[in-house]
């Protein structure tokens, strides 16, 4: 794929199409999560409703899809707009699949989340210069451990969700 100015409209169209698909997905998630039982009869609170987490994720997908769509519309006429990096998209999908299929349920949740965040951060920070690589990997390890611990704490103590 060339990286000339002719790629800008193609990239903007691809981003706009992606934004449309993600927007539809986010709205569908919100609608489905809204229809989930709320357990009000059993003295459940809003924070313990099973639809709150997927609803939040759906809302974030809608928000980010909207931002992607706006950015693609602005870049449609801009020369030199960055082309979509297919390798990064594939790497993101692969890491997400490894996390969801390979780590969840086989390791304690905090460790699976920590490994995922570490791997994701390390892969995308690897392009840093060799002198900064060790520091970036150390930062990725700290970020992974903090994220794994924080997510586990929030889900188990605040949302009262038992994690795998």
TrEMBL record:
What UniProt keywords apply to this chain's record, in alphabetical order? Membrane, Transmembrane, Transmembrane helix
Outline the extent of the DUF1468 domain: 17-164
Q: Does the keyword Thylakoid apply?
A: no
Q: Which residue spans traverse the membrane?
A: 12-31, 51-70, 82-101, 107-125, 137-155
Q: Which Pfam families match?
A: TctB (PF07331)
InterPro entries per the UniProt record, alphabetical: DUF1468
Asked if the keyword Transmembrane helix belongs to this entry, the reply reads: yes
Give the protein's recorded name.
Putative tricarboxylic transport membrane protein
From which organism does this entry originate?
Humitalea rosea
């Amino acid at each position: 794929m060339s990286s000339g100015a002719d790629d800008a409209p193609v990239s903007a169209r691809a981003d706009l199409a992606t934004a449309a698909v993600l927007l539809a997905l986010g709205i569908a998630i919100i609608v489905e999560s809204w229809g989930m039982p709320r357990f009000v009869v059993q003295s459940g609170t809003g924070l313990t409703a099973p639809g709150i987490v997927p609803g939040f994720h759906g809302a974030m997908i809608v928000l980010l899809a909207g931002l992607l769509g706006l950015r693609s519309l602005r870049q449609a006429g801009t020369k030199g707009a960055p082309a979509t990096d297919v390798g990064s998209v594939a790497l993101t999908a692969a890491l997400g699949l490894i996390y969801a299929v390979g780590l969840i349920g086989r390791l304690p949740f905090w460790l699976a989340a920590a490994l995922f965040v570490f791997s994701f951060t390390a892969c995308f920070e690897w392009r840093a210069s060799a002198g900064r690589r060790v520091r970036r990997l150390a930062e990725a390890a700290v970020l992974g451990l903090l994220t794994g611990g924080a997510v586990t704490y929030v889900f188990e103590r605040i949302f009262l969700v038992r994690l795998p």
